[in-house]
Write a structure and sequence with these properties.
globular, 7-stranded parallel β-sheet, alpha/beta
Length: 417
Protein backbone atom coordinates (compact mmCIF):
# COMPACT_ATOMS: atom_id res chain seq x y z
CA UNK A 1 0.00 0.00 0.00
CA UNK A 2 2.85 2.38 0.87
CA UNK A 3 4.49 1.64 -2.46
CA UNK A 4 1.32 2.57 -4.36
CA UNK A 5 0.99 5.72 -2.26
CA UNK A 6 4.46 6.78 -3.41
CA UNK A 7 3.54 5.92 -7.01
CA UNK A 8 0.32 7.96 -6.74
CA UNK A 9 2.21 10.92 -5.29
CA UNK A 10 4.58 10.82 -8.26
CA UNK A 11 1.56 10.78 -10.58
CA UNK A 12 0.17 13.91 -8.94
CA UNK A 13 3.53 15.64 -9.18
CA UNK A 14 3.66 14.72 -12.87
CA UNK A 15 0.12 15.87 -13.69
CA UNK A 16 1.18 19.31 -15.06
CA UNK A 17 3.62 17.57 -17.42
CA UNK A 18 0.90 15.07 -18.46
CA UNK A 19 -1.53 17.87 -19.30
CA UNK A 20 1.17 19.82 -21.14
CA UNK A 21 1.93 16.74 -23.22
CA UNK A 22 -1.76 16.31 -24.09
CA UNK A 23 -1.92 19.99 -25.14
CA UNK A 24 1.19 19.64 -27.32
CA UNK A 25 -0.09 16.51 -29.01
CA UNK A 26 -3.48 18.11 -29.57
CA UNK A 27 -1.78 20.80 -31.68
CA UNK A 28 -0.84 18.06 -34.16
CA UNK A 29 -3.79 15.76 -33.45
CA UNK A 30 -6.86 17.77 -32.35
CA UNK A 31 -8.59 14.58 -31.16
CA UNK A 32 -6.30 14.56 -28.13
CA UNK A 33 -8.11 17.63 -26.79
CA UNK A 34 -11.48 15.90 -27.06
CA UNK A 35 -13.17 13.80 -24.35
CA UNK A 36 -10.68 15.10 -21.77
CA UNK A 37 -13.08 14.32 -18.93
CA UNK A 38 -12.72 10.61 -19.77
CA UNK A 39 -9.06 10.87 -18.82
CA UNK A 40 -10.33 11.48 -15.29
CA UNK A 41 -12.91 8.70 -15.22
CA UNK A 42 -16.07 10.40 -16.49
CA UNK A 43 -17.33 7.71 -18.88
CA UNK A 44 -20.84 7.86 -20.35
CA UNK A 45 -22.55 4.61 -21.27
CA UNK A 46 -25.33 4.26 -23.83
CA UNK A 47 -27.32 1.67 -21.90
CA UNK A 48 -27.65 -0.13 -18.57
CA UNK A 49 -26.80 -3.56 -19.97
CA UNK A 50 -23.94 -5.57 -18.41
CA UNK A 51 -20.55 -4.48 -19.72
CA UNK A 52 -17.54 -6.42 -20.94
CA UNK A 53 -14.58 -4.04 -20.74
CA UNK A 54 -11.56 -4.36 -22.99
CA UNK A 55 -8.51 -2.09 -22.82
CA UNK A 56 -6.34 -1.83 -25.93
CA UNK A 57 -3.74 0.89 -25.62
CA UNK A 58 -3.45 1.99 -29.26
CA UNK A 59 -3.89 1.04 -32.92
CA UNK A 60 -2.04 -2.28 -32.92
CA UNK A 61 -3.76 -3.56 -29.81
CA UNK A 62 -7.19 -2.48 -31.06
CA UNK A 63 -6.67 -4.41 -34.29
CA UNK A 64 -5.30 -7.40 -32.38
CA UNK A 65 -8.43 -7.45 -30.22
CA UNK A 66 -10.80 -7.53 -33.22
CA UNK A 67 -11.37 -11.32 -33.44
CA UNK A 68 -11.86 -11.53 -29.68
CA UNK A 69 -14.31 -8.61 -29.63
CA UNK A 70 -16.27 -10.14 -32.51
CA UNK A 71 -16.47 -13.46 -30.68
CA UNK A 72 -17.66 -11.72 -27.48
CA UNK A 73 -20.35 -9.79 -29.37
CA UNK A 74 -21.64 -13.02 -30.86
CA UNK A 75 -21.47 -15.06 -27.65
CA UNK A 76 -22.89 -12.37 -25.34
CA UNK A 77 -25.58 -10.51 -27.33
CA UNK A 78 -27.18 -9.08 -24.18
CA UNK A 79 -23.97 -7.39 -23.04
CA UNK A 80 -22.29 -4.18 -24.16
CA UNK A 81 -18.59 -4.07 -25.02
CA UNK A 82 -16.61 -1.03 -23.92
CA UNK A 83 -13.15 -0.56 -25.43
CA UNK A 84 -10.79 1.93 -23.86
CA UNK A 85 -7.54 3.18 -25.33
CA UNK A 86 -4.82 5.74 -24.60
CA UNK A 87 -4.25 7.39 -27.99
CA UNK A 88 -6.34 9.42 -30.42
CA UNK A 89 -5.32 7.10 -33.26
CA UNK A 90 -6.44 4.13 -31.17
CA UNK A 91 -9.85 5.70 -30.60
CA UNK A 92 -10.20 6.44 -34.32
CA UNK A 93 -9.33 2.81 -35.06
CA UNK A 94 -12.03 1.55 -32.69
CA UNK A 95 -14.58 3.45 -34.78
CA UNK A 96 -13.13 2.17 -38.05
CA UNK A 97 -13.00 -1.47 -36.99
CA UNK A 98 -16.17 -1.80 -34.90
CA UNK A 99 -18.43 1.14 -35.80
CA UNK A 100 -21.26 1.53 -33.29
CA UNK A 101 -21.21 -2.13 -32.24
CA UNK A 102 -19.02 -1.17 -29.26
CA UNK A 103 -18.58 1.86 -27.07
CA UNK A 104 -15.25 3.71 -27.03
CA UNK A 105 -13.54 5.85 -24.41
CA UNK A 106 -10.11 6.96 -23.25
CA UNK A 107 -8.69 5.07 -20.29
CA UNK A 108 -8.45 7.35 -17.24
CA UNK A 109 -5.05 8.29 -15.89
CA UNK A 110 -4.09 5.94 -13.06
CA UNK A 111 -5.25 8.16 -10.21
CA UNK A 112 -7.29 6.28 -7.58
CA UNK A 113 -10.27 8.67 -7.82
CA UNK A 114 -10.32 8.37 -11.64
CA UNK A 115 -10.21 4.59 -11.81
CA UNK A 116 -12.77 4.31 -8.99
CA UNK A 117 -15.09 6.61 -10.95
CA UNK A 118 -14.61 4.48 -14.09
CA UNK A 119 -15.35 1.21 -12.30
CA UNK A 120 -18.34 2.61 -10.44
CA UNK A 121 -19.88 3.81 -13.71
CA UNK A 122 -19.06 0.83 -15.89
CA UNK A 123 -19.28 -2.01 -13.32
CA UNK A 124 -17.71 -4.46 -15.77
CA UNK A 125 -18.44 -8.15 -15.47
CA UNK A 126 -14.89 -8.80 -16.63
CA UNK A 127 -11.91 -6.62 -17.59
CA UNK A 128 -9.61 -7.69 -20.41
CA UNK A 129 -6.22 -6.02 -20.85
CA UNK A 130 -4.65 -6.59 -24.27
CA UNK A 131 -0.95 -7.50 -24.44
CA UNK A 132 1.05 -5.71 -21.71
CA UNK A 133 -1.15 -3.27 -19.81
CA UNK A 134 -0.25 -2.99 -16.12
CA UNK A 135 -1.73 0.02 -14.27
CA UNK A 136 -1.07 -0.34 -10.57
CA UNK A 137 -3.99 1.65 -9.07
CA UNK A 138 -6.44 0.34 -11.66
CA UNK A 139 -5.59 -3.29 -10.92
CA UNK A 140 -5.76 -2.67 -7.17
CA UNK A 141 -9.24 -1.15 -7.58
CA UNK A 142 -10.40 -4.13 -9.66
CA UNK A 143 -9.13 -6.48 -6.97
CA UNK A 144 -10.97 -4.53 -4.26
CA UNK A 145 -14.23 -4.70 -6.27
CA UNK A 146 -13.74 -8.40 -7.10
CA UNK A 147 -13.70 -7.73 -10.84
CA UNK A 148 -11.92 -10.55 -12.71
CA UNK A 149 -9.10 -9.23 -14.88
CA UNK A 150 -7.59 -11.16 -17.80
CA UNK A 151 -4.29 -10.22 -19.42
CA UNK A 152 -5.03 -11.37 -22.98
CA UNK A 153 -2.60 -11.96 -25.84
CA UNK A 154 0.10 -11.25 -23.28
CA UNK A 155 3.66 -10.63 -24.36
CA UNK A 156 6.60 -9.32 -22.39
CA UNK A 157 10.07 -8.66 -23.80
CA UNK A 158 13.18 -9.39 -21.77
CA UNK A 159 13.88 -5.66 -21.45
CA UNK A 160 10.39 -4.93 -20.12
CA UNK A 161 10.62 -7.85 -17.70
CA UNK A 162 13.86 -6.49 -16.27
CA UNK A 163 12.28 -3.04 -15.86
CA UNK A 164 9.29 -4.47 -13.97
CA UNK A 165 11.61 -6.63 -11.83
CA UNK A 166 13.45 -3.51 -10.68
CA UNK A 167 10.08 -2.25 -9.37
CA UNK A 168 9.04 -5.56 -7.83
CA UNK A 169 7.76 -3.84 -4.67
CA UNK A 170 5.15 -2.18 -6.92
CA UNK A 171 4.74 -4.53 -9.87
CA UNK A 172 4.49 -7.92 -8.13
CA UNK A 173 1.12 -7.19 -6.43
CA UNK A 174 -0.18 -5.91 -9.78
CA UNK A 175 0.81 -9.01 -11.75
CA UNK A 176 -0.62 -11.15 -8.96
CA UNK A 177 -4.01 -9.45 -9.49
CA UNK A 178 -4.70 -11.01 -12.90
CA UNK A 179 -7.31 -13.76 -12.71
CA UNK A 180 -5.81 -15.34 -15.80
CA UNK A 181 -2.86 -14.55 -18.04
CA UNK A 182 -3.11 -15.72 -21.65
CA UNK A 183 0.48 -15.68 -22.91
CA UNK A 184 1.45 -15.71 -26.57
CA UNK A 185 4.54 -17.91 -26.10
CA UNK A 186 6.28 -20.00 -23.47
CA UNK A 187 8.99 -17.35 -23.05
CA UNK A 188 6.34 -14.72 -22.26
CA UNK A 189 4.71 -17.07 -19.76
CA UNK A 190 8.00 -17.68 -17.97
CA UNK A 191 8.80 -13.96 -17.65
CA UNK A 192 5.29 -13.17 -16.42
CA UNK A 193 5.45 -15.96 -13.82
CA UNK A 194 8.73 -14.60 -12.48
CA UNK A 195 7.04 -11.22 -12.00
CA UNK A 196 4.25 -12.68 -9.86
CA UNK A 197 1.54 -13.63 -12.34
CA UNK A 198 -0.28 -16.90 -11.75
CA UNK A 199 -2.86 -19.04 -13.61
CA UNK A 200 -0.90 -18.59 -16.82
CA UNK A 201 -1.77 -20.45 -20.01
CA UNK A 202 -0.02 -20.25 -23.38
CA UNK A 203 -2.90 -19.68 -25.80
CA UNK A 204 -1.16 -18.20 -28.86
CA UNK A 205 -1.39 -14.86 -30.62
CA UNK A 206 -4.77 -13.30 -31.46
CA UNK A 207 -3.19 -11.45 -34.38
CA UNK A 208 -3.08 -14.68 -36.38
CA UNK A 209 -6.90 -14.70 -36.26
CA UNK A 210 -7.33 -11.14 -37.53
CA UNK A 211 -9.07 -11.24 -40.91
CA UNK A 212 -7.73 -8.75 -43.44
CA UNK A 213 -10.22 -6.56 -45.27
CA UNK A 214 -11.04 -8.44 -48.49
CA UNK A 215 -12.46 -5.36 -50.24
CA UNK A 216 -9.26 -3.43 -49.56
CA UNK A 217 -7.17 -6.35 -50.73
CA UNK A 218 -9.17 -6.57 -53.96
CA UNK A 219 -8.78 -2.81 -54.54
CA UNK A 220 -5.05 -3.09 -53.97
CA UNK A 221 -4.74 -6.02 -56.36
CA UNK A 222 -6.75 -4.15 -58.99
CA UNK A 223 -4.37 -1.21 -58.79
CA UNK A 224 -1.41 -3.61 -58.83
CA UNK A 225 -2.62 -4.99 -62.16
CA UNK A 226 -2.49 -1.48 -63.60
CA UNK A 227 1.19 -1.31 -62.56
CA UNK A 228 2.05 -4.56 -64.28
CA UNK A 229 5.38 -3.26 -65.61
CA UNK A 230 6.52 -1.78 -62.30
CA UNK A 231 7.70 -3.35 -59.06
CA UNK A 232 6.31 -2.11 -55.74
CA UNK A 233 8.21 -2.01 -52.45
CA UNK A 234 6.21 -1.39 -49.28
CA UNK A 235 7.75 0.36 -46.28
CA UNK A 236 5.18 -0.78 -43.72
CA UNK A 237 4.46 1.02 -40.45
CA UNK A 238 7.62 3.11 -40.52
CA UNK A 239 8.67 5.12 -37.50
CA UNK A 240 10.63 8.33 -36.92
CA UNK A 241 13.80 8.65 -39.05
CA UNK A 242 13.31 5.27 -40.73
CA UNK A 243 11.87 6.70 -43.96
CA UNK A 244 15.01 8.76 -44.63
CA UNK A 245 17.26 5.84 -43.70
CA UNK A 246 15.48 3.41 -46.01
CA UNK A 247 15.00 5.80 -48.93
CA UNK A 248 18.70 6.69 -48.92
CA UNK A 249 19.56 2.99 -49.05
CA UNK A 250 16.92 1.93 -51.58
CA UNK A 251 16.97 4.69 -54.21
CA UNK A 252 20.54 4.10 -55.50
CA UNK A 253 19.95 0.33 -55.73
CA UNK A 254 16.43 -0.27 -57.05
CA UNK A 255 15.36 0.00 -60.70
CA UNK A 256 14.33 3.56 -61.49
CA UNK A 257 10.72 2.60 -62.24
CA UNK A 258 10.20 1.00 -58.81
CA UNK A 259 7.26 2.43 -56.86
CA UNK A 260 8.00 2.82 -53.15
CA UNK A 261 4.86 2.82 -51.01
CA UNK A 262 5.46 4.39 -47.58
CA UNK A 263 2.89 3.87 -44.82
CA UNK A 264 3.98 5.72 -41.64
CA UNK A 265 2.92 4.14 -38.38
CA UNK A 266 1.54 7.34 -36.86
CA UNK A 267 -0.90 9.68 -38.66
CA UNK A 268 0.62 12.84 -37.17
CA UNK A 269 3.74 12.14 -39.26
CA UNK A 270 2.01 11.97 -42.66
CA UNK A 271 2.85 15.56 -43.58
CA UNK A 272 6.39 15.23 -42.25
CA UNK A 273 7.04 12.22 -44.48
CA UNK A 274 5.52 13.98 -47.50
CA UNK A 275 7.90 16.91 -47.01
CA UNK A 276 10.82 14.53 -46.54
CA UNK A 277 10.11 12.95 -49.94
CA UNK A 278 9.65 16.31 -51.66
CA UNK A 279 12.93 17.57 -50.18
CA UNK A 280 14.67 14.65 -51.91
CA UNK A 281 13.14 15.68 -55.22
CA UNK A 282 10.86 12.64 -55.36
CA UNK A 283 7.56 12.69 -57.21
CA UNK A 284 4.85 11.59 -54.79
CA UNK A 285 1.20 10.62 -54.96
CA UNK A 286 -0.79 10.92 -51.75
CA UNK A 287 -3.48 8.32 -51.16
CA UNK A 288 -5.51 10.73 -49.01
CA UNK A 289 -5.66 13.23 -51.90
CA UNK A 290 -6.88 10.63 -54.37
CA UNK A 291 -3.91 11.35 -56.64
CA UNK A 292 -3.21 8.88 -59.46
CA UNK A 293 0.18 7.20 -59.34
CA UNK A 294 1.21 8.06 -62.90
CA UNK A 295 4.99 8.41 -62.90
CA UNK A 296 5.20 8.96 -59.13
CA UNK A 297 8.20 7.41 -57.42
CA UNK A 298 6.51 7.30 -54.02
CA UNK A 299 2.95 6.47 -53.01
CA UNK A 300 2.37 7.95 -49.55
CA UNK A 301 -0.08 5.82 -47.60
CA UNK A 302 -1.44 8.70 -45.54
CA UNK A 303 -4.73 7.05 -44.61
CA UNK A 304 -5.79 4.99 -41.61
CA UNK A 305 -7.12 1.45 -41.68
CA UNK A 306 -6.08 0.56 -45.24
CA UNK A 307 -3.04 -1.63 -44.63
CA UNK A 308 -4.62 -4.55 -46.51
CA UNK A 309 -4.79 -2.30 -49.59
CA UNK A 310 -1.12 -1.34 -49.36
CA UNK A 311 0.02 -4.91 -48.72
CA UNK A 312 -1.89 -6.13 -51.78
CA UNK A 313 0.09 -3.65 -53.90
CA UNK A 314 3.48 -4.91 -52.77
CA UNK A 315 6.00 -7.29 -54.25
CA UNK A 316 8.19 -7.01 -51.14
CA UNK A 317 7.52 -5.45 -47.72
CA UNK A 318 10.10 -3.92 -45.38
CA UNK A 319 8.89 -3.84 -41.77
CA UNK A 320 9.08 -0.52 -40.02
CA UNK A 321 10.23 -0.17 -36.43
CA UNK A 322 12.97 -2.74 -36.99
CA UNK A 323 15.72 -0.61 -38.60
CA UNK A 324 16.20 1.54 -35.50
CA UNK A 325 15.98 0.37 -31.89
CA UNK A 326 12.18 0.53 -31.81
CA UNK A 327 11.26 -3.14 -31.49
CA UNK A 328 9.62 -3.76 -34.86
CA UNK A 329 5.98 -3.86 -35.96
CA UNK A 330 3.42 -6.56 -36.64
CA UNK A 331 4.46 -8.64 -39.65
CA UNK A 332 1.61 -11.17 -39.40
CA UNK A 333 -0.81 -9.22 -41.61
CA UNK A 334 1.86 -9.02 -44.34
CA UNK A 335 2.58 -12.76 -44.16
CA UNK A 336 -1.16 -13.52 -44.21
CA UNK A 337 -1.43 -11.94 -47.66
CA UNK A 338 1.54 -13.86 -49.00
CA UNK A 339 4.00 -10.98 -49.38
CA UNK A 340 7.73 -11.60 -48.69
CA UNK A 341 9.03 -9.71 -45.66
CA UNK A 342 12.39 -8.10 -44.92
CA UNK A 343 13.04 -7.05 -41.33
CA UNK A 344 15.80 -5.05 -39.74
CA UNK A 345 17.75 -6.29 -36.71
CA UNK A 346 15.59 -4.67 -34.01
CA UNK A 347 12.47 -6.84 -33.79
CA UNK A 348 12.49 -7.57 -30.05
CA UNK A 349 8.78 -6.73 -29.64
CA UNK A 350 7.96 -9.48 -32.15
CA UNK A 351 10.94 -11.73 -31.53
CA UNK A 352 9.24 -15.12 -31.57
CA UNK A 353 7.18 -14.62 -34.73
CA UNK A 354 10.12 -12.97 -36.51
CA UNK A 355 12.38 -15.90 -35.71
CA UNK A 356 9.78 -18.45 -36.82
CA UNK A 357 9.02 -16.55 -40.03
CA UNK A 358 12.74 -16.47 -40.82
CA UNK A 359 13.12 -20.16 -40.02
CA UNK A 360 10.19 -21.06 -42.28
CA UNK A 361 11.50 -18.93 -45.13
CA UNK A 362 8.81 -16.24 -45.07
CA UNK A 363 11.15 -13.48 -43.89
CA UNK A 364 14.71 -12.30 -44.34
CA UNK A 365 16.24 -10.52 -41.35
CA UNK A 366 19.12 -8.20 -42.20
CA UNK A 367 21.68 -6.16 -40.29
CA UNK A 368 20.88 -2.70 -41.62
CA UNK A 369 19.12 -0.61 -44.27
CA UNK A 370 21.82 -1.18 -46.89
CA UNK A 371 21.47 -4.95 -46.56
CA UNK A 372 17.70 -4.53 -46.80
CA UNK A 373 18.12 -2.62 -50.07
CA UNK A 374 20.40 -5.31 -51.51
CA UNK A 375 18.03 -8.12 -50.58
CA UNK A 376 15.02 -6.17 -51.86
CA UNK A 377 16.69 -5.75 -55.24
CA UNK A 378 17.48 -9.47 -55.42
CA UNK A 379 13.90 -10.43 -54.56
CA UNK A 380 12.41 -8.04 -57.12
CA UNK A 381 14.33 -9.94 -59.82
CA UNK A 382 13.31 -13.39 -58.57
CA UNK A 383 9.57 -14.05 -58.89
CA UNK A 384 9.97 -17.71 -57.91
CA UNK A 385 11.65 -16.81 -54.61
CA UNK A 386 9.00 -14.20 -53.86
CA UNK A 387 6.26 -16.78 -54.43
CA UNK A 388 8.04 -19.33 -52.24
CA UNK A 389 8.35 -16.83 -49.37
CA UNK A 390 4.73 -15.76 -49.77
CA UNK A 391 3.49 -19.36 -49.56
CA UNK A 392 5.62 -19.88 -46.43
CA UNK A 393 4.08 -16.78 -44.83
CA UNK A 394 0.53 -17.95 -45.48
CA UNK A 395 1.35 -21.40 -44.06
CA UNK A 396 2.83 -19.80 -40.94
CA UNK A 397 -0.38 -17.84 -40.31
CA UNK A 398 -2.63 -20.83 -40.90
CA UNK A 399 -0.62 -22.91 -38.43
CA UNK A 400 -1.13 -20.50 -35.56
CA UNK A 401 -4.82 -19.68 -35.89
CA UNK A 402 -7.23 -20.57 -33.10
CA UNK A 403 -6.10 -18.34 -30.21
CA UNK A 404 -9.45 -16.52 -30.19
CA UNK A 405 -11.46 -19.62 -29.32
CA UNK A 406 -9.00 -20.58 -26.59
CA UNK A 407 -9.32 -17.09 -25.08
CA UNK A 408 -13.10 -17.26 -25.33
CA UNK A 409 -13.32 -20.61 -23.56
CA UNK A 410 -11.40 -19.19 -20.63
CA UNK A 411 -13.37 -15.94 -20.43
CA UNK A 412 -16.77 -17.62 -20.63
CA UNK A 413 -15.63 -19.90 -17.82
CA UNK A 414 -14.77 -16.85 -15.71
CA UNK A 415 -18.08 -15.16 -16.48
CA UNK A 416 -20.10 -18.25 -15.63
CA UNK A 417 -18.24 -18.55 -12.32
Amino acid sequence: MISRAIYTLLLWLGLPWILLRVWRRSRREPAYAQHLSERFGRIKLRSTRPVIWIHAVSVGEVRASAPLVQALLEALPHHDVLITCMTAAGRMTIGQVFGDRVQAAFLPYDFPFAVQRLLSTVQPKIAVMIETEVWFNLLAACRAKHIPVVLANARLSANSARAYARLAWLSRPAFNTFSFVCAQHEADALRLARLGAHRIQVLGNLKFDVAFNAAQRDAGQALREQLIHRRVVLLASTREAEEALLLDALLPVLPTDTLICIVPRHPQRFEEVAQLCLARGLRIARRSHGQSIGDAQVLLGDTMGEMAFYIALADVALMGGSFLRLGGQNLIEVCAQGVPVISGPHSFNFKAVTQEAARRGALIQVADANAAATNTNVLLKDAAQRKKMGVAGIALCQKHRGATQRHMDLMLELLSA
